[in-house]
Structures are given as C-alpha cells and as structure tokens.
Amino acid sequence: MTFADEVKNAVTARAALLVIGVLALQLLFIASYVGALHRPDPTDVPFGVVAPQQVSGQLVAQLDGLPGGPLDPRAVPDQAEARRQIQNRDIDGALIVSPTGATDTVLVASGGGTVLATSLTRIIERAEGPRQRTVRTVDVAPASPDDFDGLSSFYLVVGWCVGGYLCASILAISAGTKPANRQRAVIRTGVMALYSIAGGIGGAVIIGPVLGALPGSVWALAGLGALVVFAVGMITLALEALTGIIGIGLAVLLIVIAGNPSAGGAFPLPMLPDFWRAIGPALPPGAGTWVARSIAYFGGNAVTGPLLVLSAWAVVGTALTLLLSMRRRGTQETRQEAAPGDPEASPGSSSSLA
Fold first, then answer.
1. Average pLDDT over the chain, rounded to an integer
2. N or C: at which end does the chain have fewer Cβ atoms within 10 angstroms?
3. Cβ-based burial of 202 (10 A; exposed 0-12, middle 13-18, buried ≥19)
4. Is the pTM higher than 0.85?
C-alpha cells in the first residue's frame, strides 16, 4: 500500500472537511476576539449634561465635538433626572456642572462596566481642564468589591452558554445528530428544560451566596440562567437537527465566536467596534450579560428587550427542533409505505429505475 493510500485510509474525505471547518473556526475565533477587544475606545457613549441654561447648549456641543466622538451627550434637566436615567440604563454617565463653584461632578455606574466608568471620568477631566475646572466622581451604581472590573456577570452568562450547547451536543450525538422521531425530540427538549433549571439555580447560588461576587436577587438570576441555558441549548439542538454534526460547529460560531466578544463583558458595548456593538444585544451572551448586570446593580431595570431576545432564541430553537423531527418522521413513514412488495418500490419496476 502506498503512502497516499495510507493517508486516504487515515483521513477520510469527511474527516478532512471537518478538519478544514475546525481550522476556519479557529481563525474566526482569533479574528473575532482580537478584532473586538484589541483597542477598546469609547464611541458615542450616551451621556447626560446638567448645566445652567446659559452654558448647557455650548457644553453639549463641546462634548459632542471631542476628537474620536467618545460621547453622545444630551441635556438633562437636573441631577435627579440624570441619576434616574443612569439607573434605567438610558445613559452611562452624566456631568453635573456646579453653578457656583469650580468643581463639577461626574456620575458613573461601575456596575455596568468598571472600564467604561473609568474612561468617562478621564474624558471629562481632559475636557474640563482648559476651562480651569476640577472634577469629582460619584458612582451611583457601584460594582461589588468582589466583582473585579464588573466581569462576574459576563463569566456567569458564559458558563450558562457553555452548559447549554454542551448539554445539547451530548443529547444529540448520543443517538445520532438528527432526531429520528418526534418523541425523541420531545424527550430531548424536556431534558434540556430540566438541565436549564438546574444550571440556572446552580450558577446563581455559586455567584451569589457562595462566592458573594454579585448582589441582587438569587431567584431572578436563577430564572435568567434557566432561560439562557435553554435558549442556547435549543438553538444548538435545532442546528444539529438541521445540519448534523456540523451544527455543533455552527453553535460554537454563533455563541462563542460571535457572541462572547460582542457581549459587552470585558468591555461594555460603547467601547466595542461598530460590528460587534451591533450584533451583541441580539445574541444570547450579550442579552444575558445585560440582564445579569441589571439585576445585580440597576434594580432589574431595562431588561424587557434582552429577555425578549433570549425568549425568541428559545422559541425558535424549540420550534425548529420539533418541526425538523416531524419532517424526518414523515420521510421515514413515506419510505415504510413503499414496502419491498409494493410494485412501485420493486427493484425491477420502471419507477425504481428512473
């Protein structure tokens, strides 16, 4: 046997294609993470300005014209409204101009991302310098001292996502990557639901009572975790039902390669390039991270949109998984009806030869 024959026996054409697919995922992983995170520059950060009426418009225009466009400033009537908008996650910070003294106040929310809060303070300090004014910082939604750089929410959601697609992958490949019938798909969906509940509760207990990394309602986090795990798991099952083992790679592409760097974890969304900022809120890691931070630091505000995103992934994944299993069942029933004794299915019949 020649060396070429040995290679063909060792690496089949199918295996070669899968290896090429893995290489593509590897390169996409590098491109996505480095592309999203190599230069985190704040851009168009929603930012409030509370200032006397005679200088408010001029100050908003000045901040809007800063090099690189780091801020998207808008006038806010008073400090109480600025705090309310920060708590509602409508803006990420605010400048409160003192009408009498030379010291202004920057309101930030490190619970939404420590790096962004620090960056906003530095931006305002540089902008205020030429006006001979000083700045003090007030954190209106501070991150927990045990939540370094506000990353605990992100890592919690990443863990839930990993559990979701790993559980779905195991369920699928244990008896073939395509559901053979509707009953099997229903059973897998039920198992996925039970696993999601366990994973959600377990993650919330670890991050809260056990480690003390995140404040907020344990049961709210547990509910979020169950939804994240189920959404990721069901979309993974749907992709595997649609494409076979390739679906596992597609799930990795969707959740790990596209979803994680765009989730606003290491760097909040306003610090990401436009592409990742656009896709992040529409993917499970980004939606989950936003809700986890809202539960922990913002009183559960501004969670409706992200929860609808996660629910949509869960519903679409479940529907596709069940519909694809019904289609496969219909195909099998059609083949069974064309029994060997059926003239139309007979090997010697003209329809068989066509």
1. 88
2. C
3. middle
4. yes
